[in-house]
Specification:
Radius of gyration of chain B: 22 Å
Oligomer: heterodimer
Largest sheet of chain A: none
Shape of chain A: elongated
Strand content of chain A: under 5%
Strand order of the largest sheet of chain B: 1-2
Number of strands of chain A: 0
Number of strands of chain B: 4
Helix content of chain A: over 70%
Chain lengths: 104, 502
């Protein structure tokens, strides 16, 4: 029943994803886990864009935007994983609570 | 004028040259044997780009690429500043021992990419373009921060930058999606029309009554994205770590370049897009969306936290990082007055800030090259062991950063305070004044270390290198000159304060 699904449902999913992403970033100590949290935040926005594009007055702009976001998220993951790999090679650990050479 | 993609190309020569330079440098690294040539080529490109931007000044204004970016006085002003920031970073990299053995082709190509991204941040008039430009600058900055292979601090700083940046831009993206949903458009011009209709029941098909809280939330989320770029509290946490861990030329570029680009993007979004101009030098926030008082608090907290934290720093890079947070707070003073006065004062201050902060970083680079250290001990007795000229220049930069006359920093602060006082925002003015006094303490500590402390017996003689010395000299003279003869820069900022909205 497509009528039962409205804009609100998608916005709720988006908001939930956003909160889960933030929670993941704040609580994870594993660097990869944090990167996954960032991806969740980006995809929360994607859900919103597509929902607004489908139900709102914005036309296809939102869908175009979300495609760009997917591409940028991939670039960000590539850079993030490269940095994490570099850290792992040097210190043998990707636990962010052990990264304490910069503080004060 | 409103141009399509093909028609826009002749008006995008500076960006085009930068893009060609990026690709060219990547390729040239494979064939060129003498690696120093690549850096010099990058220097020529940034100089040429700045000249091309200067030639656009006073010319036609309009929207390029179907409304994606604006070519107007405001964007040309910032592109000039950002082109100079790129030039300064390339110049410093050429004179940096840290960067000597790294892959120069890649490195300079990345520096040019950041400059290109910052150009688009300053001129974007569409949320998609603004987001792409911001992410472009951020992602290349992560790479540059961790560019030195084998540097533990660099890699750690890069990861912290990436995590904070990713979350901040994700929050901004989410805020933009709400604005898109409410207004039905990504375009700043359309958004501003809808915002103007907020008080009077809305424009057809778009905003409905009661949407103000959502718009307010969206603006706060967008603020997270731009606030992180300008290092505004509470989105500043990355900045001390990244400034300390990144190579010094990159730190300098982040502090003068991406901060200015962030402010440009912020002004374009918060002024022409979501506020209304009353034609008389004042701006009005959309009805029921009072972002001004939020930012007044942010400005006061930012400058206070930056200054207080800087008091107990011994590492100069870290100290300058906190100082640059405090300066973001000062610049926000011009942002919150909602008047052309304030914007003009901010634009002037950004020029002054570019000069004095880049100068301070370059003196630090000279000391770092000589001693391999970047803490305050390395400056001990600098004036008495062969470094009289760098020490004198550092004195000028420090007093200017503290805002003492007769240096350019004083004039910059004067305009900012004048704009705040004209709006009768007394609390903000007093907090700003107290902060300026506090900041004098840590700037004076460096001066005291250079002049009043005697160098250690075995301290090596300081030999100033000519390459960095030239840049320091030019910037020190500029700090002095603009301290007594500032009219032309203010006039330029005045002329440049025009937004083309179609």
């Amino acid at each position: 029943m497509p009528e039962a699904l409205g804009l609100h449902h998608f916005l709720l999913v988006g908001a939930a994803l956003f909160c889960m992403g933030l929670y993941c970033v704040l609580t994870r100590r594993n660097a990869i886990g944090i990167l996954m949290g960032v991806e969740l935040v980006l995809n929360a926005a994607n859900v919103n864009y597509i929902a607004f594009s489908r139900y709102g007055v914005g036309g296809v702009d939102g869908q175009v935007f979300s495609i760009f976001v997917i591409m940028l998220a991939a670039a960000e993951a590539a850079i993030g994983l490269a940095i994490v790999l570099g850290i792992y090679r040097r210190s043998g650990s990707i636990d962010v609570s052990q990264m304490t050479s910069l503080r004060g | 004028m409103n141009l399509n993609n093909i028609q826009s190309l002749p008006f995008s020569l500076p960006e085009g040259l930068l893009a060609v330079g990026v690709v060219g440098l990547f390729l040239l690294e494979l064939v060129v044997k003498r690696k120093a040539l690549l850096g010099e080529l990058a220097l020529v490109i940034t100089a040429a780009v700045t000249c091309l931007v200067a030639m656009q000044s006073g010319g036609q204004e309009g929207l390029l690429f179907g409304g994606m970016v604006a070519l107007d006085g405001f964007s040309i002003f910032f592109k000039l500043l950002l082109g100079l920031a790129g030039f300064g970073a390339v110049w410093m990299s050429l004179g940096s021992d840290e960067m000597r053995d790294e892959h120069p082709g890649e490195y300079y190509a990345l520096l040019l990419s950041v400059t290109l991204g910052m150009f688009y941040m300053a001129s974007a008039t569409n949320m998609l373009m603004a987001y792409l430009a911001l992410e472009f600058v951020s992602q290349v900055s992560y790479v540059l921060t961790g560019f030195i292979r084998g540097s533990r601090r660099g890699a750690e700083a890069a990861l912290k930058y990436l995590v904070y940046g990713g979350v901040a831009s994700g929050a901004m993206l989410y805020g933009m999606s709400l604005i898109y949903g409410l207004t039905g458009s990504l375009d700043y011009a359309v958004i501003s029309q809808v915002m103007a209709g907020l008080g009077s029941g809305g424009v057809d098909g778009a905003v409905v009554a009661g949407a103000q809280p959502v718009i307010y939330l969206a603006l706060v989320l967008v603020l997270a994205g731009v606030g992180y770029k300008i290092a505004m509290v509470p989105f500043h946490m990355w900045s001390p770590d990244v400034y300390e861990g990144a190579p010094l030329p990159v730190t300098a570029l982040l502090s003068v370049g991406s901060k200015a680009a962030g402010f440009a993007m912020m002004i374009r979004f918060f002024y022409p897009a979501v506020s209304a101009y009353d034609g008389d030098g004042n701006w009005l926030a959309a009805a029921g969306v009072d972002w001004q008082s939020l930012l007044v608090v942010a400005s006061m907290v930012t400058m206070t936290l930056g200054n207080v934290a800087a008091l107990r720093q011994d590492n100069l890079k870290r100290l300058l990082a906190y100082s640059s947070i405090a300066h973001a707070g000062y610049m926000l003073m011009g942002f919150v007055v909602m008047a052309d006065d304030g914007l003009r004062a901010m634009m002037f201050y950004m020029v002054v800030y570019y000069i004095m902060n880049l100068g301070a970083f370059t003196v630090l680079l000279m000391v770092l090259n000589q001693s391999g250290r970047e803490d305050i001990e390395a400056f001990k007795g600098l004036a008495w062991r062969g470094g009289a000229l760098p020490a004198a220049a550092m004195l000028i930069f420090m007093l200017s950063l503290a805002g003492l006359p007769p240096f350019a920093g004083f004039i910059g602060k004067f305009y900012l305070f004048a704009a705040v006082i004209r709006q009768e925002m007394w609390v903000l003015a007093v907090v700003g004044g107290v902060n300026s006094v506090v900041s004098l303490y840590y700037y004076a500590r460096i001066v005291r270390s250079m002049y009043l402390d005697q160098p250690a017996e075995d301290a090596p003689q300081f030999v100033a290198d000519r390459h960095n010395g030239l840049l320091v000299g030019v910037l020190a003279v500029a700090t002095l000159v603009f301290g007594v003869w500032w009219r032309p820069v203010v006039a330029l900022a005045d002329r440049s304060l025009s937004f083309f909205t179609g």
